[in-house]
Design a protein that fits this description.
The chain has helices spanning 3-30, 36-51, 66-74, 121-124, 141-148, 159-164, 200-203, 214-217, 221-227, 246-256, 283-300, 313-322, 325-331, 333-387, 393-435, 437-453, 457-500, 513-529, 533-538, 541-601, 606-639; strands spanning 54-59, 95-98, 106-111, 131-135, 154-157, 185-188, 190-196, 206-210, 233-239, 266-271, 308-310. With 652 residues, the chain is α/β, with parallel strands linked by helices.
């Protein structure tokens, strides 16, 4: 199955799943089985499915055919090259290809000068006025190609300006910066580019990241700390005529497969194999030569040979445009596309499926427990009223007194609930004292002061190391608070279930492990790129300090912001079932008491009231069956990834 068809099927699966969840959400709301917390969680779940993105990054040194490979895999059916692809340097800045329907088709360009402000690209995306906007004429291939050439633009600056903007210009790298006789060096004109283009694959959620060579990768923290690590797939492109060069190896080891980084979704593409198509050699000799080159690359990169894919992107693009099946097969591009679709999309779907299923199960369980609680209470009330048939007023008064006693006992038990809420509030405050952004700001400022006051490299190094030690201590204390809150809620859930028959199940669990691993990853990056004796001796204290806070501290803050949002959501989720069930039980006791009071006042209303409750019972049973049917639809959607048929067409 082609990558385009596989991705189209994945987008359709997401759409169907979101539709089924939306139907369940509407039904719950219509039947008064929802609350503000459930509504918020359904809304977030639907938004995640609609906004789900699949990020594929293409990484290579200059002149490896990276842009041509993107054109060949994703945009051949457009009939022409979308990205500029020619000899020499074509993509000078990181370029994202995506589609946001809220924006017109356009090219967004962020000036390289913004590097001097110590502000990340993600932050700049919140301020459109900081970007140069160039309209994209999607009806003209020529006009579009002309517009996209902006990503190739460069400017010439003096060495001090280049260094101020983060480019490490030294005597050994002058050639790479195309230094002129006047000593000025060539750097990219733009720091980042976003191409908003209504291509069907991009409309379905595909995001393509086209990266420049080593010089740009090593100087843009957003790439190495966020965009590349978070990509679902990274295609590392080599050239068949050069194999693995020294700069290729640096990119691979430092930015793609670092010691702490995983290799899931990482593929190596050996491009330009058409250079081996020698008419004086047999096809078997050509294939053997390509195989030897692939095995050599795999050995150097410590990969199995099956993870290296020899292709000719240029011939594959030509073959697709001209519908030349023989040339397409010889280009070996279909082998790469098949591996990409078989590894990338199923893995991504599995992540989305598991996350959605966990959230759905909890929401469904809450609704089911609420219905069952109502039904159990109703049947208890029916049983009481049925026992009153033919009984005198004394018996009715006894029953009324019994229910009143139950109500008073429950209200007495509520004091324990209110006490738990008070303790819950205290523990929550303690949790955010460790995990909150205020404490992180204090730690960041303390670390900044220590680095500014450092007079020796060791003091600078210790300040960075202590920053991560403090972060881990904060997470460890937060973890203990989370465990304490969960233990307390588990006990109160169990107590109210036993004493008052509430159907509460088990409180939702929560883990900070993902944030602990993120801190590990950031420290590993820091120890490789900043906190080394070489870097500390080579660069001035101010430069190291600036890069630490511009590159590392910003990412730490982002991780803590996510942790705070997830923690707040969990705290609401763990308390909401308790609040709902307590409120429901109070209403149930009130209804029971009112029913018996009515019967005490007029015994002829007994049968009428029993008839009313019989009807309500029927409604509740039907609601449980309807909920089960809707939940079954969602489960079927979760498990049914419909593969597109051979007749399915994807318009490109």
């Amino acid at each position: 199955m082609s990558l385009a068809k596989q991705f189209a099927a994945y987008a359709e699966w997401r759409s169907q799943l979101e539709h089924r969840l939306s139907a369940l959400r509407t039904w719950l709301s219509d039947n008064e089985l929802s609350d503000a917390q459930s509504e918020m969680r359904f809304a977030q779940l639907g938004e995640r499915l609609r906004e789900d993105r699949l990020h594929v990054a293409f990484v290579a040194e200059f002149s490896r055919g990276k842009s041509e490979l993107i054109n060949a895999i994703f945009f051949a059916n457009y009939g022409n090259r979308m990205l500029p692809s020619s000899a020499g340097r074509t993509t000078m800045c990181p370029t994202e290809l995506m589609y946001d329907p809220a924006k017109p088709p356009r090219l967004e360009l962020l000036s390289i000068e913004t590097r001097a402000n110590n502000t990340g690209i993600a932050e700049y995306k919140r301020f459109p006025d900081k970007w140069k906007m160039v309209p994209l004429d999607v009806n003209s291939a020529e006009a579009m190609q002309e517009t996209l050439r902006h990503v190739s633009e460069v400017i010439r600056v003096d060495r001090s300006t280049a260094e101020r903007l983060g480019f490490a210009v030294d005597d050994n790298s002058l050639e790479a910066f195309h230094t002129g006789e006047d000593g000025r060096v060539e750097i990219p004109r733009w720091r980042h580019a976003v191409i908003n283009f209504p291509h069907p694959l991009l409309q379905q959620g595909l995001v393509i990241l086209d990266t420049p060579g080593l010089n740009a990768i090593g100087t843009e923290p957003e790439l190495t700390l966020s965009l590349l690590p978070n990509a679902h797939a990274v295609l590392f492109i080599l050239a068949a005529d050069t194999g693995v060069t020294q700069s290729d190896l640096i990119i691979w080891r430092e930015h793609i497969c670092s010691p702490r980084g995983g290799r899931s979704g990482r593929m190596v593409v050996l491009n330009k194999i058409d250079g081996q198509w020698d008419e004086l050699k047999t096809e078997a000799e050509i294939n053997a030569e390509i195989a030897r080159q692939a095995e050599s690359c795999a050995s150097i990169l410590s990969l199995p040979p099956t993870q290296v894919f020899p292709v000719s992107a240029q011939k594959g693009l030509v073959a697709k445009i001209n519908n030349d099946a023989e040339l397409l097969a010889r280009s070996r591009l279909p082998d790469l596309e098949r591996a990409l679709s078989e590894e990338l999309i199923p893995a991504k779907r599995e992540i989305v499926r598991d996350t959605t299923e966990n959230e759905f199960n909890e929401l469904n369980m809450r609704a089911r427990a609420l219905l069952e609680s109502r039904l159990a209470g109703l049947r208890e009330q029916l049983g009481e009223l049925s026992e009153l048939r033919g009984k005198n007023k004394g018996v009715v008064e006894y029953m009324m007194g019994k229910v009143r006693t139950e109500k008073e006992e429950f209200e007495t038990g509520l004091q324990r609930y209110y006490a738990v809420r008070s303790v819950f509030s205290t523990l929550t405050n303690q949790l955010f004292a460790h995990l909150g952004l205020d404490s992180l700001r204090t730690l960041t400022q303390t670390t900044r002061d220590a680095m500014h006051e450092a007079t020796f490299s060791k003091q600078l190094s210790d300040a960075m190391a202590n920053f991560f030690v403090s972060l881990r201590e904060a997470l460890a204390r937060s973890k203990r608070e989370v465990e304490e809150i969960h233990k307390m809620m588990e006990a109160i859930y169990r107590k109210f279930s036993v004493e008052h028959g509430l159907k509460l199940g088990s409180p939702a669990t929560f883990s900070l492990l993902r944030y602990e691993r993120e801190i590990d990853r950031l420290e590993s990056w820091c120890n490789m790129h900043l906190n080394t004796m070489y870097q500390l001796l080579r660069h001035k204290k101010g430069h190291v300090t600036q890069k630490f806070f511009e590159e590392v501290a910003v990412q730490v803050r982002r991780a803590f912001e996510h942790a705070n949002r997830h923690t707040e959501g969990w705290l609401k989720a763990i308390m909401a079932p308790m609040e709902t069930q307590v409120r429901e039980h109070q209403m149930h006791l009130k209804r029971r008491l009112e029913s018996i009071k009515r019967i005490h006042q007029a015994t002829d209303t007994l049968e009428e009231r029993i008839g009313e409750l019989d009807q309500v019972e029927s409604v509740l049973v039907n609601q449980i069956q309807a909920l089960e049917s809707l939940a079954k639809d969602v489960r079927q959607a979760l498990d049914a990834f419909i593969a597109p048929s051979d007749q399915m067409t994807v318009t490109l």
